[in-house]
C-alpha cells in the first residue's frame, strides 16, 4: 500500500485480508468477492428538537450473509461515515469466522454526538432510526441483529427491541432482534463484561506460550508486566476491572479523550471506577496524575499496550514512538496496515482485534440463542446438579464417617448459573481459537499473529464458497 495516500479504514482491513490470502495462496477473484460489502443502506431521519428540525444520517452495512443473521454493533458518533461502517462490518465477518460463531458480518452507525442530546431526544431518534432499518429489511431476529458499540449501550438496545416489538407484536422471537440488552429485557448475564473479559482471556492465553512471551521479553505472570490502556468506556473499563481484580495487574496508565492518568506503581482500578462513575471524568482522581495530552498515552513505555477506544490510533505518524512489547487490540482496527508492517519488522507482537475483542459477539451469540430458545441457561439442570452433588457428599460422609467441611460443601454443591456457563463458554472459545492461531503461526511460517488469525477466517470462508459451488477455487 502506498505511504503517500492515507488509506481509509476499509482499505486497511482489505489490505490485511489480501496479505493473509497470499499466505494461503487464495485466488484473487475469490478474495475480491469475500472482501466486498454485500449491501449497505444510508438513511436519514428527521426529527424536531427544541422547535428545529434536525437531520441525522445513518448507515447499516451487511458485509456477508453466508450465515444468518448477520451480526454487528450500532455506533453513535459524530465521526462515523460509510467507509468506517463497511470496515467494521467486514471485521465482523472475519471475527465470527475466526471464533466459529454462526453469523454473517454487519455494522451500523448514526452520525450524532449523543452527549448533546437528552435521554428523551435520543430515545425518539433511536426509535426512528431503528424503524427505518427494520422497514428496509436491515434489522430482524432472523437476518440482521445489532448490539452496542461506541456511543450506545443496553439502553439503546432495549429501545430498538421495543421498536421491533411494536412493529411485529406477533413475532415470538422479538427479543432476539438485538443483543446486549439489560437482563430484565432478555439480556444475558456476563454480556456487559464479555468483551473486556475476552480481551483478558486473550492475554492470559498468550502468556501461556513461552516461545511467544520470551520472543518479546515479557514476563510470564500478567502481574509482573506493566499495562497501558487507551479508553475507559464499556470495553476499557470492564477490561481494567477484570485485569485488576482477577490478575492483580499493574495498570500504570489509562487514557480518555481529554487526557490520561499515570501512576508508575499501578492505578487502583476499583477506586478509579467509583470516581469515574460519579464524576464522569478522570480529573481530580487522587490515585494518579492527570496529564491533559490524550495521544501521549499510546507512546508511554510499557510491557503491554491495549488500545480500547478508536480505530487507526496507531499509524505512520506515531508508530515509531511506540515503546511496548505487545499490543492487544481491544478496539476495532486500532493499528493501520502500514503501522502493522512497521511493528512486525520491529518484532513487536500484535494480538489482532478479530480475535481479541470477539468476546462481545461470542456472548451475544449466547444471548441470541437464549432468546430464540426462550429458556435461561442453567435453569433446567441447576437444581438437579445440586441434588446429585448433595447425594455424593452424603455417601462420602456416610462411608468415611467424616464430615466434609462446610466451605467445600457449598462450593461443590453450587449448581451451575447462567453467568458461570457464559464465562466458561467464553473462556473455551478464546483458548481453543488461540490454538488454531498458533497452528497457522507455525505452519504458514514468517507471518504475523494477525495474518495467522485472518488465515483461519479466510480458510473457513473459502470452504463455504467451495461448498456452495460459487466457483472453482483452489
Ligand atoms: P464506548 O463508547 O463505551 O467507549 C469508548 C471510550 O473511548 C469512551 O469512554 C470515549 O470517551 C473514549 N475515547 C474517545 N476518544 C478517545 C481518545 N482520543 N483517547 C482515549 N479515549 C477516547 O465504546 P466501547 O464499546 O468501549 O468500544 C471501544 C472499542 O471497542 C471500539 O473500537 C469498538 O468498536 C470496540 N468493540 C466494542 C465491543 C462492545 O461489546 N462494546 C465489542 C467489540 C469491539
Structure described in brief:
With 474 residues, the chain is α/β, with parallel strands linked by helices. Helices cover 46% and strands 14% of the residues. It has 16 helices and 13 strands.
Describe the structure.
- With 474 residues, this protein is of the alpha/beta class.
- The chain has 2 domains: 1-36 and 189-381 and 416-474, NAD(P)-binding Rossmann-like Domain (Rossmann fold, 3-Layer(aba) Sandwich); 41-185, Rossmann fold (3-Layer(aba) Sandwich), CATH 3.40.50.
- It has 16 helices and 13 strands.
- The chain has helices at 9-23, 28-35, 82-98, 119-135, 154-167, 191-206, 210-215, 234-247, 269-279, 337-345, 353-356, 359-373, 382-400, 406-413, 418-443, 449-468; strands at residues 39-49, 52-62, 70-71, 74-77, 104-111, 144-145, 226-230, 250-256, 259-262, 289-291, 304-307, 326-328, 349-351.
- The strands form 2 sheets. Strands 10-9-8-7-11-12-13 form a 7-stranded mixed sheet, with helices on both faces. Strands 1, 2, 3, 4, 5 and 6 form a 6-stranded mixed sheet that branches.
- It is globular, with a radius of gyration of 23 Å.
- Nicotinamide-adenine-dinucleotide binds at residues 148-151, 195, 230-236, 255-257, 294, 308-310, 330-332, 357, 360.
